[in-house]
Structures are given as structure tokens and as C-alpha cells.
Amino acid sequence: MMPTLETIVALAPRLRRKEISPVEVARECLDRIEKLDPTLNAFITVMAESALAEARAAEAEISRGEWRGPLHGIPVALKDLIDTAGVRTTAASALYQDRVPTEDAEVVRRLRRAGAVILGKNNLHEFAYGGSSLVSFFGDVHNPRNTAHIAGGSSGGSAAAVAAGLCYAAIGTDTAGSIREPAALCGCVGIKPTYGRVSARGVIPLSWSLDHVGPLAASVGDAALVLQAIAGYDALDVCSVDVPAADYVSGLDEGTKREGTKKLRVGIPRAHFYEELEDEVSAAVEGALSVIRQLVAEVRDVEIDVPADRTVQAAESFAYHAENVARTPELYQPETLRRIRSGEKVSATEYIRRRRELDEERRRARDFFAEVDLLVTPTMPIPAPAIADLKKDPEALRPAELKLLRNTRPFNVWGLPAISVPCGFTKSGLPIGLQIAGAHWREDLVLRLAQAYERAVDFSAK
Predict the structure, then answer these.
(1) From CA 69, how far away is CA 62, in angstroms rounded?
(2) Annotated catalytic, 178?
(3) What angle, 0 to 180 degrees and rounded to 10, lies between the N-to-C axes of helices 8-16 and 220-230?
(4) Phi then psi for 59, rounded to 5 degrees?
């Protein structure tokens, strides 16, 4: 189930020149969904009728010379906790199986403004509370590289859809790694921007203080195009921050020049992030570092203390769900209910103290970049586990997820931008991801090194 779609970067100029119709492109995606999704289960809702209508509208606009930009006529998908007006948004839960919002989330509004075609809503780990996408009212998500393995989570359906070529990009959310983890496990690109960079208004929350919204795509260039469309201040989102977004796409063009990355200094935080790696992951990441050393000015080891407390996430998740947990607990998957209830006994005093510590951590993160520009780590310490292994022992699921999210979670606490790009495969063909992180608001540098690495190794055809 390997992708055959070209990149958005390659397709967009062809659409603009009217060499291909947005309707043809949308039909191709819908045909692939019909053929492949019964096995992958990456979609909860396919919006075929409205997608074709949007594609026809895009075709008419482009024909009139009203091209909106590189996403005009491009089919994309949305994690199904992102509100869509008039289309159910379920969060993969029986609780919300018939929930139909009346307004689009802000990120959807921006995609529509850019002319994107919305194909449908992706399956996920129920209410985003997990890293496997095996806990969903709508069934398990399967990895397109090997359907016996997990796609990761909680944006598992989004990563599977992109990796299988069912859509050109998808929007996911990331509270502890839920964009980067499935991107790494499925072999695509996923970027979590700086906290507050992309509006989360109209997105069902897991933890208001830790939730990030961002794109998954087949290439770094495609991820940059989507991020460009959705980034920016939203005055109606209390978590949004009014810091102008860089020109990520032009920044990538600069990065293609040899000097584009030659001034960058890269830090390698060996403690925590490089510990207890599966052997094939370790080998792939060390190989990636050898490539990066040729691309940048300096690579040096750095020491960073890593926060481990999860009180804020637990407390905020329970706060959102408390009323429904009390009224209709049977509508949650049992494992989700257990996780939500883990925050029930967090006192106000404890929450306030831990929330203050989170703010202190985000301030401390500025110091990481006193002598380096970027940090590079493995995205995951292990490749995608087999579904059967996780299901035969229910007690093993959460520990496995926490291990998978070990390297991504700290960057949500710090609120730093971080991307996962493919850096190799295991002998059995499972993808391995490399994580690149930068200082607050420096998505441009993260993308620049990510693309330079991507072009140096080119795993796209493997």
C-alpha cells in the first residue's frame, strides 16, 4: 500500500496551469479510499459529495484565473476531532457519534480559504487519549506499511491516510506526540508547531495547555505549504499567540542552497532521548546524524533535563469530560474512561502548582538554544508494535504507548516546534523517524534542516 500520489509541491503548478483538473485529483483520492480504506480504517467519514463539489468549484475558479495558492484544489483530510460545519465530528467516540457542529474550526476555515478540498474525517485514538489508535468506537487503524502493526496515535488515521496516498495532507493534533509519533511509524512527515502558532479553536481538546494543531504530509515541502496556510494569530482563541508567522515556503527555497544550513548549529541531547533505543532505530538515527554533520556548521552533545510529570494533562482532560463521565460513562471505551478518571483526584492546589511549573519549563526551554539552533533526536525509541502483541495483554497497551511517546512528549511541555521525518526502515520494512526541534517560533529553521536532510537521503521511493 505504498503512495503513488505526487507531492503538493509538484501538483500545485500543474493545477494552476490547468494541466490537470481538481476533479480528477479528488476522484483519484476517493477511488484510493474506496479501495484501500476498508483495510486501513483511516477514515470515519468520507465527504465524497461535498469534496467533488469543492473540486468543481476550484476548477471553475482556476479556469477564471482566480488561483488562491498552492493548496487550491488539493484534497486534504482532517482528524475527526476538528469541527466541520454540518458534518459529524466524533472524536472516535460513541459519546459524539452523532455530534454535528454548526461552525468550522478555525483551521478548517483557513484551509477552505486557501482552496483546499476536504475529503473527510480521519479515525483516531478516542478523544486523542492514547498513542496507538487501537481504542476507537470505529475500530483499529492499521499501518499501511504493514497492516499487522499500529499506525500510531492519536492521529493514526491521518498518518495512515497520508502514507497510503489517500490524501495529499492531513491535519492532526499533538498533545504528547500525536502528530510526530504516527508520522514516524507510518513513514511520512509530521510537524508540531510552536504552542499557540496554529489556532485550536473548534478542536475537541485533550489538554488545553498542551494541545498543538499541525499538518502531516508526504514531504517537508508539502508540510510547509500546509503550515503556511493554517498558521497565524486567532484573536478568538485564548491560547493563540500574536507572533507573525515566517514565510516557511521561501525559507525552504533558501535552505536548498548549500549555505542555507551551513550556519546551523545542532545539539544532540543523548541523555533520555537516545537511551534504550531498539538496535535498528539506533543504527538509522546514527546514520542520519552522519548525514546532518555534512549539512550544518556544528554538531555537539548537549545536556537537557527532561520533565516527566503528566498532572496537567490528566487534570485538564478530566475537567473537559467530567460532566459526561458522571452522566454517561458507558459511552466511553473502558480504557479511555480509565485514563480520563486518572485526573479526577488532582486537587486545585496541585493543578495550579503543576501548571506554574509548565510555564517555568517553557521559559527554561529558551536556554536550550543559547549555543545551538536545533535539537535532533530519534522520534520513537522503537518501531511500530504489532497490533496482536498489544491486544493480547490489555495491561501492556498503556506502557507501550508511553514508551513510544517518550521522546516527543517533552516538546509539548516546552511548547517548541518539532518535526518528524523518515530516516530509514527496519529489516522488516517498518519506518523509523528522526525528530528535529527548534526554539519557539523557529519553525522555519526546523523545516529548513528537515528538507535539507530529506533531499540528502530521499526515502520517498522506498
Answers:
(1) 10
(2) yes
(3) 70
(4) -60, -45
The question of whether 154 is a catalytic residue gets the answer yes
CA 24-36-109 angle, 5° bins: 55
275 to 189, 343, 403: CA distances (angstroms): 23, 29, 11
pTM, full prediction = 0.97
Burial letters for 430-449: b for 16+ Cβ neighbours within 10 Å, e otherwise? bbbbbbbbbbbbbbbbbbbb
Rg (CA), the chain: 20
Dihedral, CA of residue 434, residue 435, residue 436 and residue 437, to nearest 10? -170
DSSP-assigned letters across all residues of 408-450:
THHHHHHT--EEEEEEEE-TTS-EEEEEEEESTT-HHHHHHHH
Residue-level pLDDT at 359:
98
Long-range contacts of 139-143 (CB under 8 A, 24+ apart): 139/41, 140/41, 140/387, 141/40, 141/41, 141/42, 142/39, 142/40, 142/41, 142/387, 143/185, 143/186, 143/384, 143/430
State the Cα torsion 31-36-40-45 to the nearest 10°: 20
**Rounded to an integer, what distance in angstroms lies between the CA atom of residue 73 and that of residue 225?**
13
Asked whether the beta carbons of 411 and 401 are under 8 A apart, the reply is no
Clarify whether 79 is annotated catalytic. yes
Confidence check: pLDDT of 255 > 70: no
The candidate with the shortest Cα–Cα distance to 179, out of 236, 137, 122, is: 122
pLDDT averaged over every residue in the chain: 96
Annotated catalytic residue within 93, 132, 133, 178 = 178
**98 contacts: CB under 8 Å, gap ≥ 6:** 88
From the list 93, 132, 136, 154, the catalytic residue is 154
Delimit the domains of the chain by residue range.
Answer: 8-308+352-457, 311-351
Instruction: Give the C-alpha separation, 3 to 218, whole Å.
Output: 9
Fold of 8-308+352-457: Amidase signature (AS) enzymes (3.90.1300)
120-124, 157-161, 392-396, range with the lowest pLDDT: 392-396
CA distance 416 to 393: 35
For 352-361, the pLDDT digits (tens) are 999 999 999 9
Q: Which pLDDT belongs to residue 2? A: 46
